[in-house]
Write a structure and sequence with these properties.
Structural class: mainly alpha
CATH topology: 3 helical TM bundles of succinate and fumarate reductases
Largest sheet: none
CATH superfamily: Fumarate reductase/succinate dehydrogenase, transmembrane subunit
Strand content: under 5%
Shape: elongated
Radius of gyration: 20 Å
Distance between the termini: 62 Å
CATH architecture: Up-down Bundle
Length: 125
């Protein structure tokens, strides 16, 4: 019996399990922290130390709502990457390898990243 294979994949219909989503977000957040995250951070540090005018420019950027939103998103990238990295280290040491534990740890990673981002964002705003 020959199987009928789809002619195309509708990516909106494919549903990944939560651990796969956490893994994908871990990779994306790591890539975005590396570039453009590191160059922007180094550029802003350079401006802070360069002159009083550049320091005032960075200080004015920090008060703009758009920059605060970008800072919140970058903070979530960092926190998610941090907690997911701890989760993957535990998985490498064979802790939490069952399906139920993997799903629970994925939920914890997502919740911890979002909750801490919101708590720190209250301080930022």
């Amino acid at each position: 019996m020959e199987k009928k294979r789809p002619k195309y994949l509708d990516l909106t219909e494919i549903r990944q399990p939560l651990p796969a989503v956490v893994s994908l977000l871990h990779r994306v957040s790591g890539a975005l922290l590396f570039f453009p995250g590191i160059p922007l951070l180094l550029c802003s540090f350079d401006m802070l130390l360069n002159s009083p005018q550049d320091y005032a420019r960075v200080e004015s950027l920090l008060t703009s709502p758009l920059f605060k939103a970008v800072l919140m998103l970058s903070l979530w990238f960092f926190l998610h990457h941090f907690f997911a990295g701890i989760r993957f280290l535990a998985l490498d040491m064979h802790y939490g390898g069952t399906l139920e534990q993997a799903r629970l740890s994925s939920k914890i990673v997502l919740a911890a990243g979002i909750i801490l981002t919101l708590l720190i964002s209250v301080v930022i705003w």
